[in-house]
Write a structure and sequence with these properties.
Number of strands of chain A: 13
Structural class of chain B: mainly alpha
Number of strands of chain B: 0
Shape of chain B: globular
Radius of gyration of chain A: 24 Å
Strand content of chain B: under 5%
Largest interface: A-B, 35 and 26 residues
Order of helices and strands of chain B: HHHHHHHHHHH
Strand content of chain A: 15-25%
Oligomer: heterodimer
Strand order of the largest sheet of chain A: 5-6-7-3-8-9
Structural class of chain A: alpha/beta
Distance between the termini of chain A: 13 Å
Number of helices of chain A: 11
Order of helices and strands of chain A: HEEEHEHEHHHEHEHEEEHEEHEH
């Protein structure tokens, strides 16, 4: 958990990527006002073929609104969202270009899973047997003829995903797909996203408000809060706070002046340990030894990804690193 | 467009609502026809000559035939639900993700709504025809199907039911909120129109309201005294115009709005 997983090569299987040629998803200055509230504020980013891009931010950051604008369900106050250079409504074959899972699941409660997919197959002009293939793919074959109102949240998520995959789209846009999925379901989904990006060269944009859900799978992240872009890059380069040293000692009163003499900054944590920045662990240990301070614990602490993410998106004072 | 139509038709056949509302429409048509026939049961007081049975007259038979449209409200409600359910259950999302050209979806819904309405209309007319045939045959009364215009009236009743379903879709395009659309349209047709009929300033134009226009189409309603009377064809066109007006204004004002 200390460091980001190494980003996978963006277009690993170059041949496959070229063959499929997923169109780029581009948000260009997207802005959306709801009355006097600006939900999305001049947001620009892009999603490349053969990569999984995480779209991260706390609840209410404007993620879903941004995705709805990209998908043509909501019109931007200003700016444009395009897929392969075209707005969603102008796509010649939307179901084969983009598949989307939106946060709240949308099914008629009395309709069965299979019938739901068959309705969508008909609309997309896809053969009906695709419905059964998809039910099999997402593991819902056993409940294919059960009305959706009997489905758990996780089953609905799977059905949403099946709906998104109807036209074998080259771009996949998933809004909080982890909600309601059990750990196995989430692992399966990660594999699916990776396979779509690596082996099939598709572009995947996946949103989440929990970094740990997607950190193992994303190549890049776009982080937003309060409708604004905060970071666009790899997780490894995500800016964090200063690394520091934790010191636990029964003689804090003598340790503090000795450490201050090193030029280090020392704060006393609520659990009575000392949090030291501006000095290496070896320097802290040496100073303690010289001052005759008894040491119970001495350890270097780096910011975890989660802490860096929280610090970046926090409002307004970033938390210090945990222990 | 073929894909949109197939999808919309599948939406209809994969739910039970159409069936429930159809049964209600048929029940209303059948029961009101039977009720009207039985209201003509004439018992003559002893010792006096029985008055002529009104059921023998083709005008009475035509009035019975207009009851083929008695369940029209259910066709309207079905039309409203056909479209508002997409917003109530958020199925509008997959619908418009797969077919972002919203006008096509609306058109497909209008066509499918008309198809369902026609099925309601034909079935209702058939039920009324069945009740009439059985009952009047038992009384030995012959029906002027062709000569008396009874069949034509049943046909117009079926058309009226079809148009009611279309009007419902038009209402749903304009008003996305299912409860508001259903309650609002029922309140208008069952209460507010009758209020218009008794306000002198506007009662002259009463015939141009949707309900009376449909009544003129079927031949079941008379305009208020001194009001304008529409022919059957005019009534049908006026009623169709209401559906078109609602659908077009919905397309202009509502359909371009964000999908929730």
């Amino acid at each position: 958990m200390e460091t980001a997983p190494a980003p996978r090569p963006a277009t690993g299987g170059a041949a496959a990527a070229v063959a499929t040629g997923a169109p780029r998803v581009v948000a260009d200055g997207l802005t959306k006002d709801f009355g006097r509230i600006r939900a999305v504020d001049n947001l620009s980013f892009s999603v490349e073929q053969g990569s999984v891009t995480g779209f991260l931010g706390p609840n209410g950051a404007g993620k879903t609104t941004t995705l709805r604008m990209l998908l043509g369900l909501a019109s931007p106050t200003s700016g444009t969202g395009t897929i392969g250079g075209r707005r969603y409504a102008e796509l010649s074959d939307p179901a084969r270009t983009v598949g989307a899972v939106l946060e709240a699941t949308s099914f008629l409660p009395g309709r069965t899973a299979r019938n739901h997919l068959r309705v969508c197959c008909a609309a997309a002009g896809v053969a009906d047997r695709r419905a059964d293939e998809l039910l099999d793919l997402v593991g819902l074959t056993a409940v294919a003829r059960v009305p959706v109102h009997a489905f758990s949240l996780g089953m609905r998520q799977r059905l949403s995903l099946a709906t998104a995959l109807i036209g074998e789209p080259r771009v996949l846009i998933l809004d909080e797909p982890a909600n309601g999925l059990d750990p196995q379901g989430m692992a399966w989904l990660r594999q699916l996203m990776r396979r779509m990006a690596d082996a099939e060269g598709r572009a995947v944009l996946v949103s989440s408000h929990v970094l740990s859900e997607v950190e193992q799978v994303v190549d890049r992240v776009v982080i937003v809060a309060r409708g604004r872009l905060l970071y666009d890059g790899t997780l490894r380069d995500l800016p964090g706070g200063q690394d520091g040293v934790v010191l636990r000692t029964p003689a804090a009163g003598r340790a503090v002046p000795a450490l201050a003499a090193l030029g280090a900054e020392v704060t006393i944590s609520p659990d009575a340990s000392l949090w030291i920045t501006g000095a290496a662990p070896s320097a802290v240990g040496h100073a303690c030894w010289q001052a005759g301070v008894e040491v119970h614990e001495l350890r270097a602490v780096g910011w975890t990804l989660e802490q860096r993410f929280l610090a970046l998106t926090a409002d307004p004072v970033p938390p210090g690193p945990g222990r | 467009m073929r894909n949109a139509l197939r999808s919309e038709w599948r939406k209809v056949t994969t739910t039970k609502l159409w069936w429930a509302l159809l049964l209600a429409a048929l029940a209303v048509a059948g029961v009101s026809a039977a009720g009207l026939i039985s209201s003509y049961q004439t018992g003559a007081p002893p010792g006096m000559a029985a008055p002529p049975d009104p059921l023998v007259q083709v005008s009475t038979q035509r009035m019975l035939a207009t009851l083929g449209a008695a369940g029209e409200i259910f066709a309207l409600v079905y039309g409203v639900i056909l479209i508002t359910t997409e917003f109530r259950h958020l199925t509008a999302r997959p619908t418009f993700l797969i077919e972002p050209r919203r006008g096509r979806v609306i058109l497909a819904k209008l066509i499918v709504g008309a198809g369902v309405g026609a099925a309601y209309g034909i079935a209702s007319a058939a039920v009324v025809a069945g009740v009439m045939t059985a009952w009047l045959a038992a009384k030995g009364v012959s029906i002027g199907w062709l000569s008396g215009g009874v069949l034509a009236t049943l046909g117009r009743a079926a058309i009226a039911v079809t148009l009611y379903a279309l009007l419902g879709v038009g209402i749903g395009v304009l008003v996305r909120n299912q409860i508001a659309a259903v309650i609002g349209s029922l309140a208008f047709l069952l209460v507010i129109e009758d209020v218009f009929a008794v306000i002198p300033a506007v009662s002259r134009g009463y015939a141009f309201l949707p309900g009376p226009a449909a009544g003129a189409l079927v031949g079941s309603s008379a305009p208020p005294v001194g009001g304008i009377a529409l022919t059957s064809l005019e009534g049908g066109l006026v009623f169709l115009g209401w559906g078109a007006l609602l659908a077009v204004s919905g397309w202009l004002f509502t359909m371009r709005r964000d999908i929730p």
